[in-house]
Amino acid sequence: MKGSGVRGQGSVGVREEGRAAAPTPLTALENRHLLGIAELSAEEIRLILDTADAMKEIGERPIKKVPTLRGKTVVNLFFEASTRTRTSFEIAEKRLSADTLNIAASASSVVKGETLADTVRNLEAMAPDVIVMRHTSSGACHLLARICRARVVNAGDGTHEHPTQALLDAFTIRQHKGRIEGLKVAIVGDLLHSRVLRSNLLLLNKLGAHVVACAPPTLQPVGLARMGAKPTSSIDEAVHEADVVMMLRIQLERMHGHFFPSLREYYRLFALTPARVRRAKPDVIIMHPGPMNRGVEIDSDVADGPYSVILAQVANGVAVRMAVLYLLAGGSEGAG
Amino acid sequence: MLGSTIDKNTAMKLLLKNGRVVDPVNDRDGTYDVLIEDGIVTRIDRDAAVDAGVTIFEMPEGAVICPGLIDMHVHLREPGQEHKETVATGVASAVAGGFTAVACMPNTSPINDNASVTELILDRSAQANLARVYPIGAVSVGQKGEQLAELAELRDAGCVAFSDDGRPVATALLMRRALEYAGMLGLLVVDHCEDPTLKGDGVAHEGYYASLLGLRGIPGEAEELMVERDVTLAGMTKAAVHIAHMSTRGSLRAVRDGKARGVRVTCEVTPHHVTLTDEALVDYDTNVKMNPPLRDAADRDALIEGLRDGTIDAIATDHAPHHADEKAVEFDHAPFGIVGLETCVPLMLDRLVHGGVISMRRFVELLSVNPARLLKITGGSLAAGQSADITVLLPDLEVVVDRAKLQSKSKNMPFDGWRLRGGVGATFVGGRLVYCNTGVPALAAWTRNH
Question: What's the rounded Cα separation, in Å, for the pair B126 and B121?
Fold first, then answer.
């Protein structure tokens, strides 16, 4: 941050300066890490989605494997429990022929008092090419990127970002709608604590969608409008004429922070029910990043109904993560 | 550091020659010579005749001679956290920053809630023999907010004020009693204002940037509620309360309203709250994590206005050293606070004086006159007969902040590499040259003089 005053550039690692204007079409990402959607341009997002189209095809072959990352080592470093995201990354890595290593770090080093920096330096000594990290603290991936040589992929940091989730959501929307620009997207649920919300808001705004975000005022972050969403506490208003409805998980423990009185009341005011789905466009798609609380934020009839693309999201996650890994680590020179 | 090498030769006469003396208490602002004999200011004159045996310190062009700066809010960490700072390194940092005196907060380990801890701090300070150290005692035993500490014993041991800093005085009842009791002793209660339930486990100012970055928020209202409580209780008890490191426009409004109706309320702000905003969070640099947190631009601008219009009484650094290892962690887990003693003068000269917000006279009031008056300690004036605690400022010095050159044991601050206009030339305590900025060619000769 030397001399830069308030706002340091380049803390996210190597942001090359003086580089010539990107050729058209774009073929590579500018940053060597994927820390968040915040660092991606609209063009880079489209590149990832286009690459994911090609990757999806690999998953439909009888032999679902290409040698792109052969000889590369990818570490999945998870400080927070995750089944869906971790397995999705792992399958993506395997389909690209990378050597993968899963570390559930919460139970091991942290308990012994080792810092994140030391944990990472120890991993680095084994020369991984990519570290995919999930962590309970916002900004942990930025810290990681500052201290390690490997490329960092953020698999969710605290309540900050979950970029591959937003990318797979965008991929799914594009798959079903053919576009993102101009769509009305309603995001409903625990906005305050959601990294999925933050990444999606950034992405959807960059690609020109209109976002309405719905939660009780207690679960709306300060500055939500400035973050690019029209805030509301009425799910009926949010869902009205929506092209896409994205539901976010409500965590039971939030009741103890006085965010809402009970799950029963939350359901009454904010759950996506079949009646509420009827307020949306006839070809609406219903999304959820999982894991779902059936009967809390979403009715089973909706989750399993004809408008739901929730399982398509999961399937697309693999293709999108393959695309990200390929773009970050798949170049023949491997540098950047 | 020159302090330790100076011996009985302080019984000499010194003449600070041809400097701009800024001494608000004696309404002096002009070019003068200051004569110091046996550690005491004896004469302030124009073109004083020079006797034999007087050591002359010729002031560089533009130098300002002012009563020694006083930082009424620092953390020296001793006893108990000597890996962050000691009294010795803390006062070395103080004099390098132009401060001739500091008041240190009681949140040491053990807490400074009894005379033996106060005496240990004063003993360490006497050994270091650089800046004067004025301990601030705890309001409550163990700073737990349950029972008043023995405030009279603390005063007799050398404490100059009382605070549970690091946390607020917990309840309205305890605050009422503390104000009444400290009022009997004639000493100030300094309160770190925040409603603990509203603060919760927040780590950054609750605003757009914290939302964007997914950091748990601390609303400005958490501070304001308790400032309003304290102003109300100060009015009730007729005692004096001082609001530490005030950070929001709502707090400022509460203080302004209190002053307008005659309540004995005063307040301080830190250089970092005047300089930075929560936008600095975007890199998750743990060196911008402090409590109170960096607020938004409207709050920052209001504080600057409060400095201009006189509502704010003092600038204090809240110097809070932390070891590099403690800060090299996730933002959530890093401790709050930054060091500030050595960046205060350059930041405040650059932003406030050169920025056209305040005059040099007001600068001296905020950093010397008012802290001395509030804590009822020596200093804040250059009248004949006063102890020669003097700071020489070089308002036009080009300063590049360099973390590696800090005298403080800890280097946790976000200003590394900043280019600022204005710095410290030299620091005299009791007529002794305890710091000289040898990077300035015109001052290099001074160290040989002495």
Answer: 9
